[in-house]
Amino acid sequence: MTVRSVAAIASLALALAVSPACVSFYEIGIETPIQAKLDTSPFQRVLVLGFLSGGTKDVDVNSETVRLLRSQLRTKSNLKVIDSDVISLVDVVDKMKGNLATSAPAATPDPTANTVAAKDKNDAKSEKDLQPYEQIFADVAYWKKLGEEYQNPLIVTGVVYFTDINKSGIVETPKEIMNNLGQRQVVSVRQWLDRKGFAIAPKFIFIDGRTGTQLYTDSYREETLYQAAQNTPALSSYFELMDRLIPGFLNTLSSQKIKSTRTLIK
User: Fold this and answer.
1) pTM, whole model, 2 decimals?
2) 260: which residues sit within 8 A by CB, 6+ positions away?
3) What is the DSSP letter of 83?
4) CA-derived radius of gyration, the chain
5) What are the tens digits of pLDDT across the range 89-123?
6) Domain extents for the chain?
7) Is 172 exposed, middle or buried (0-12, 13-18, 19+ CB in 10 A)?
8) Alpha helices by DSSP H, 123-232
9) How far is Cα 38 from Cα 255, in angstroms, rounded to an integer?
10) 25-93+123-179+186-257, what's its fold?
């Protein structure tokens, strides 16, 4: 290092030390555009029809998801949202199966059939229970007919599974202590905790109402945990988790801008 370099560094350090007022910090907003994942230009209307749903009985996941997505699309999309009755796709598939059974040759009556059917109807569907129902998304004729009824819109449907969860394990939590000098200090403490909460796993499926074929599929999974003693309503947690997913859902249909800040020194 040369004498001139040493002198320059020393001068800069002295200037910063004696003239802190000369240094200013500025925060500026920055918007980063993200392109849409799906080309919606062929469509003017969007139909959020209904979902296969399961999990907890404390929340009507199907109806709540339809209402939430319609509300978001009305304010953050250029597509016209179609108002329609919410359809339970579980009921649609069960009805299709019933029609097939009616047209099939009569079988020997099973005395336990009504009891089993009633039990299945009242029980909340598990993720495994919902898997056979996903055949509905490959039924091109069903979706094309539905599209014709609503003037060939973009159809939004899919699967939404929302359930309560319990987890135990080592968790790091902040704790305020007093050090040897009598100063307050925040340290990280590891402890074993029993926690409970909720998890949501939606799969959004976008269908062309003109042809009945799938255009795009996007899957998510989120969870939130609380201390075991904390009593958090299921519906509150549902909206908390959906808030995390909505930006990704909207980005499928339209370009979005992520807002952030940068600090400049002058």
Assistant:
1) 0.71
2) 29, 30, 32
3) P
4) 28
5) 999 999 988 876 665 454 444 433 333 333 344 35
6) 25-93+123-179+186-257
7) exposed
8) 127-130, 140-149
9) 10
10) Rossmann fold (3.40.50)
